[in-house]
TrEMBL record:
GO terms for cellular component: 90S preribosome; nucleolus. Residues 177-270 form a coiled coil. Residues 285-295 have a biased composition (Basic and acidic residues). It comes from the Eukaryota. The keyword Transmembrane helix does not apply. This is rRNA biogenesis protein RRP36. Keywords: Coiled coil, Nucleus, Ribonucleoprotein, Ribosome biogenesis, rRNA processing. Component of the 90S pre-ribosome involved in the maturation of rRNAs. Required for early cleavages of the pre-RNAs in the 40S ribosomal subunit maturation pathway.
Length: 302
């Protein structure tokens, strides 16, 4: 029993009957039971399970026909404000408004437009024709064929049609830039001499520019020296094969030693070998200090 005394309110689970199917079939008994549930909601003491049954019934009623939903809305209008607020917390605002006020025309249109937008966002294939809005006027200067849109800009440095990059040919073609760089370096040296007597900050910037130029020159000289070593080895193998001998291929370690020998000879010729060796020893000592364990690690202090 759903609408009896207080003892009858706390019925067992076997006594609970799901009347939603009966309501969908339009049974009068189910309607009476449903109204009884609404009236029992006004009692002060109510079992939690009965409230859950009511929420389930109301949710199923929202999905019914319009005439049944109109009766439900009329029954909900008689409920106290506290119970209406409790129902809103249980059902959620969206479902409660739909059950309490009914689905308006604006709500239906919004739902239909949302479904249309979701349908339009679906991927229909990459080869389908492009859809353009008819509300926007078409330009008279639009490209009819996509290939006539315009010339595509390209960078010849990274284009295969410009040929392969050959550093030796590049250096030969742009050798005049070395003279311009040398002149620029001389101008910077003169400028830093003048600025040292004036603005020290500007002089420091110019000195930094000169250091970058010297580093680039040093790197380029080392690269040329390595290329010269490889060229000499290649020519020696060609000469050896011309005399009927087998070519000799050096390992990377052997080529590295040959480059170091050439580098030391050049430094000795320029009287820079001692300075280079001191700087090298200082760098190696710094590396050894990093590898050496600290006092805390050596004696177990934390």
């Amino acid at each position: 029993m759903l609408g009896g005394s207080e003892d009858e309110m706390y019925a067992s689970d076997d006594d609970v009957v799901d009347i939603t199917d009966m309501l969908e079939d339009g049974d009068d008994t189910a309607t009476v039971c449903y109204i009884t549930i609404l009236k029992s909601m006004t009692r002060k003491k109510m079992k939690k399970q009965l409230l859950q049954i009511f929420v389930l019934v109301l949710f199923r009623l929202v999905l019914m026909k319009k005439n049944t939903l109109a009766n439900v809305i009329a029954d909900l209008a008689d409920l106290p404000l506290g119970k209406v607020r409790e129902m809103k917390e249980k059902l959620g605002l969206k479902l409660f408004n739909k059950a309490y006020f009914g689905a308006t025309e604006a709500t239906k249109k919004a739902e239909e437009s949302r479904k249309k937008k979701l349908e339009a966002k679906k991927f229909h294939g990459q080869h389908r024709p492009k859809e353009i809005s008819s509300k926007r006027p078409v330009s008279a200067f639009r490209p009819i064929y996509q290939e006539n849109v315009g010339k595509k800009k390209r960078d010849p440095r990274f284009d295969n049609r410009a040929g392969l990059f050959k550093e030796r040919c590049f250096d030969d073609n742009y050798r005049f830039l070395e003279d311009l760089k040398r002149q620029e370096k001389e101008v910077c040296n003169e400028a830093v001499a003048c600025e040292e007597r004036g603005d020290s900050e500007t002089a420091e910037k110019i000195r930094e520019t000169i250091r970058r130029m010297e580093n680039r020159e040093r790197t380029k000289a080392e690269r040329k020296m390595k290329e010269e070593t490889l060229r000499e080895l290649r020519e020696a193998n060609i000469e050896r094969m011309m005399h009927g001998e087998r070519p000799v291929f050096k390992t990377k370690a052997q080529v590295k030693m040959m480059n170091l020998e050439k580098k030391f000879k050049q430094l000795k010729k320029d009287n820079k070998l001692d300075k280079y060796m001191k700087r090298k020893a200082k760098k190696e000592a710094h590396k050894d200090m990093k590898k050496k364990p600290s006092f805390e690690e050596m004696y177990g202090y934390q």
